[in-house]
Amino acid sequence: MPDKYAATWVSYSSISDFQKCPRAYFLKNIYRNPDTGNKVQLASPSLSLGQAIHEVIESLSTLPVEKRFKDNLLQKFDKAWQKVSGKKGGFFDTETEREFKQRGERMLQKIIKNPGLVGRLAIKIKEDLPNYWLSEVDEIILCGKVDWLEYLPDTDKIRILDFKSGTKKEANDSLQLPIYLLLVTNTQKRQVDGMSYWYLETDDKPIDVTLPNLAQSHETVFKVAKEIKLARKLERFRCPNGETGCPICRPFEKIVNGQAEFVGTNPTYRQDIFVLPHFDITDESVIL
């Protein structure tokens, strides 16, 4: 078996970065701060909101059904919010921070009032970062976290639930669903029987989506993964807009050029966190 540490690792977030802008992919996934050796990340209000919401949801996924709502979710959210409060979360004024925090509280109120899938039996994959060989021959590993796996005891199958804290609906051609289907199918033994998105900003309950074909999913994801591996081998990561850059890579270029403000380090992911005034990613949430 090939060496995992020498393989090319891809995930939904890194594949999405590459498809939008290879230069942004490089800056977010390969570039290291020369002063620390860490990767770099730009904090923004939308990403901080997603991080806090998903931290609360992650805490629920590790608990048995009878204990999930024993503790107040809003209190858990307050604790999670402390990690992103102020400038380290991309907030430059108290009014903006208050607005985003209130949005998060409203989202969690929807889960409290309509627990649905969250209140039923669930499966938790034991690995901290689920992964498998997308191709041993090509030495490519697919990895990533899925928000929630509901267990269906009558059929011994599972359903995938993905929480969305952003305002943008997932596009029909998004690779998130194929990637999640591949990950869940190959990192645990039960068959996937369905999937839902829960847009917490706009919807009171999850919305079912049609599962893609498993073989086609592998083919599509593998094709992009090989493009990423080739780009890494050739060290060729060009923005589609050329040297002028695009809205996705330009903010990260400011980190490289010393124009962003350092506000702290995330030791879990070995990331140095930077901020830019007025920077936000309004249609994106944290991808676990």
What does this structure look like?
The chain is an alpha/beta fold and 288 residues long. It has one domain: Lambda Exonuclease, Chain A (Alpha-Beta Complex), CATH 3.90.320. It is 36% helix and 18% strand. The chain contains 8 helices and 10 strands. The chain has helices at 12-20, 22-29, 45-61, 73-81, 94-113, 176-187, 214-234, 250-256; strands at residues 8-10, 39-42, 131-135, 140-143, 148-152, 157-164, 192-199, 207-209, 261-266, 271-275. The strands form 3 sheets. It has a 4-stranded mixed sheet with strand order 5-6-7-8. It has a 3-stranded mixed sheet with strand order 1-4-3. Strands 2-10-9 form a 3-stranded mixed sheet. Helix 3 (45-61) packs parallel to helix 5 (94-113) and helix 6 (176-187) packs across helix 7 (214-234). The longest helix has 21 residues, at 214-234. The two termini are 27 Å apart.
Quick structural overview:
The chain has helices at 12-20, 22-29, 45-61, 73-81, 94-113, 176-187, 214-234, 250-256, and strands spanning 8-10, 39-42, 131-135, 140-143, 148-152, 157-164, 192-199, 207-209, 261-266, 271-275. With 288 residues, it is of the alpha/beta class. It has one domain (4-275): Alpha-Beta Complex (Lambda Exonuclease, Chain A).
Q: Could you say which structural class the secondary elements and strand pairing correspond to?
A: alpha/beta
Radius of gyration: 19 Å
Say what the CATH topology is. Answer: Lambda Exonuclease, Chain A
Supply the number of structural domains: 1
Q: Which CATH first-tier class would you pick?
A: Alpha Beta
Individual helix count: 8
Strand count, sense and closure of the main sheet?
4 strands, mixed
Instruction: Say what oligomer this is.
Output: single chain
Helix fraction bin: 25-40%
Distance from N terminus to C terminus (CA atoms, Å) equals 27 Å
Spatial order of the strands forming the largest sheet: 5-6-7-8
**How large a portion of the residues is in β-strands, by DSSP E?**
15-25%
Whole-number average pLDDT? 93
Reading the helices and strands in chain order gives EHHEHHHEEEEHEEHHEE
